[in-house]
Design a protein that fits this description.
The protein folds into three domains: about 10-105, Fumarase C, Chain B, domain 1, CATH 1.10.275; about 110-205 and about 220-360, Fumarase/aspartase (Central domain) (Fumarase C, Chain A, domain 2, Up-down Bundle), CATH 1.20.200; about 365-455, Ribonucleotide Reductase Protein R1, domain 1 (Orthogonal Bundle). The protein has a two-stranded antiparallel sheet with strand order 1-2. α7 (about 110-145) runs antiparallel to α8 (about 165-190) and α8 packs antiparallel against α11 (about 235-260). It is elongated and about 100 Å long. The protein has helices spanning about 15-25, 25-30, 35-50, 55-75, 85-100, 100-105, 110-145, 165-190, 210-215, 225-230, 235-260, 290-310, 325-345, 355-365, 370-380, 385-400, 410-415, 425, 430-435, 445-459; strands at about 150-155, 160-165, 195, 220-225, 270, 350-355. The protein is built from 20 helices and six strands. The chain has about 450 residues and is mainly alpha-helical. The structure holds arginine (ARG).
Length: about 450
């Protein structure tokens, strides 16, 4: 295949070799090849229908492009840096294969609307996969939540023991975070699925094209309304990177908790050996590498969001070469969120919970203090006074080195005569969680109901 530049007509001097390599994008944008070919087939089909190409030319183009696709998929396509990008590599190969008709493919379009179309087709396909991957992780969380619906653990605020919750409830909190991530991806897909093709370089084209037809051929919802906007806009990419960043922020929080919980000090969970690694010097170590790496990867995805925002900041209309820089952050964000989701979904079912350790931890730190206050309120004491009574009882326990539930009735009654023998039902961990029995509460019955609703929602 000839490496002669397709735009060399007005140039007298050859491109400087370093500039050629510096400006080329083929190293990374070759990944768009299947979408570039899909877009070209749709374009040629429309051109023939409008009488701009003959049917023979269209057939030659379509067959030629499919042959190129097969070569690319077989790893038998020679990518040339001199031909700059995926678009010109494929077009040059097509012309070499089918002759004159290949040179007609670019009628009525530009690489500016072509690349914008390719990226949208690619991202649309990736968004569909990402949504499936999020759902897979959500299903894993539902199963774990169901398994541990009754398991009591300390709920924290400020990372200090707050109130008892169930492990299932905690898993359902993660589920809800991911559910919003799924919705954000779905919402992003709506704005991705708009077709730039036909905007040509920036102003549209003089040929009698039918953009609605091309959009239909590629299952875009509609053609972009404004040609200048169509070739220039990358806010769909920024929006995706923002949704990806929020997703990674969630995964980093989940990772952080797994890392804490799997430490010897917490010992709430054990991660399967297949998601951990050892230390080359400390024989006792089993490090939670997978969640740590995911926590770390959140940083690079946030970086991609910043890169894309900065890339677009102050860009005048319409297309500028700056936009070539949209691809690597996008590709890397997609690869890393897909990888993170995949490994997380595999790690969740293999988590084993140390129910006794969680129980013991919940007994430390006066997790049922609020339950005692609520008990006093039910006995007619105003909440502020009840708060004071419990505060004093807790101070007494701290001094004595015991939990509220360890006190004798007589000792408790010293703080309030309203306390009766029935108080101990409310000071148990099971009593505490079971009492939070409303939508969104941590009672095992409510967690099970939430799991049931969630299963229907994501079915
Ligand atoms: N490789 C370019 C990109 O990714 C394709 C569009 C180039 N257009 C141009 N007028 N130079 O943005």
């Amino acid at each position: 295949m000839s490496d002669k530049k397709l735009w060399a007509g007005r140039f007298a001097e050859p491109t400087d070799a370093f500039v050629e390599a510096f400006t080329a994008s083929v190293e990374f944008d070759q990944r768009l090849a299947p979408y570039d070919i899909q877009g070209s087939i749709a374009h040629a089909t429309m051109l023939a229908r409008q009488g701009i190409l003959s049917e023979q030319e269209r057939d030659d183009i379509v067959d030629g492009l499919l042959r190129i696709l097969a070569r690319i998929e077989a790893g038998q396509f020679r990518w040339s840096v001199a031909l700059e990008d995926v678009h010109m590599n494929i077009e040059a190969a097509l012309t070499e294969d089918i002759g004159i008709a290949g040179k007609k493919l670019h009628t009525g379009r530009s690489r500016n609307d072509q690349v914008a179309t390719d990226v949208r087709l690619w991202l649309r396909a990736e968004l569909a996969e990402i949504r499936i991957a999020i759902r897979r992780l959500q299903h894993a969380l539902l199963d774990l939540a169901e398994r541990e619906a009754e398991t009591v653990m300390p709920g924290f605020t400020h990372l200090q023991t707050a109130q008892p919750v169930t492990f299932g409830h905690h898993m359902m909190a993660w589920f809800e975070m991911l559910d919003r991530d799924h919705d954000r991806m779905a919402d992003c897909a709506v704005r991705v699925n708009v077709m730039p093709l036909g905007a040509a370089a920036l102003a549209g084209t003089t040929y009698p094209i039918d953009r609605r037809y091309t959009a239909e051929l590629m299952a875009f919802d509609h053609p972009a309304e404004n040609s200048l906007d169509a070739v220039s806009d990358r806010d769909f990419a920024i929006e995706f990177a923002a949704a990806a960043s929020i997703l990674m922020m969630h995964l980093s929080r989940m990772s952080e908790e797994l890392i804490l919980w799997s430490s010897a000090q917490f010992h709430f969970v054990t991660l399967s050996d297949s998601f951990c690694t050892g230390s080359s010097i400390m024989p006792q170590k089993k490090n939670p590498d997978v969640p740590e790496l995911i926590r770390g990867k959140s940083g690079r995805v946030f970086g991609h969001l910043m890169a894309l925002l900065t890339l677009m900041k102050s860009q005048p209309l319409a297309y500028n070469k700056d936009n070539q820089e949209d691809k690597e952050p996008l590709f890397d964000a997609v690869d890393n969120i897909k990888g993170s989701l995949k490994v997380f979904a595999a790690m969740i079912p293999a988590i084993s919970c140390d129910r006794d350790a969680m129980r013991l931890a919940t007994m430390r730190g006066f997790a049922t203090a609020t339950d005692l206050a609520d008990y006093l309120v039910r006995k007619g004491i105003p909440f502020r006074d009840a708060h004071e009574v419990v505060g004093k009882s807790v101070a007494y326990c701290v001094q004595k080195g015991c939990d509220l539930a360890d006190l004798e009735l007589a000792e408790l009654q010293r703080f309030s005569p309203a306390i009766g023998a029935d108080v101990f039902e409310f000071l148990t961990l099971e009593g505490s969680v079971a009492a939070r029995d409303h939508i969104g509460g941590t009672a095992p019955a409510q967690v099970r109901a939430a799991i049931g609703r969630a299963r229907l929602r994501i079915a």
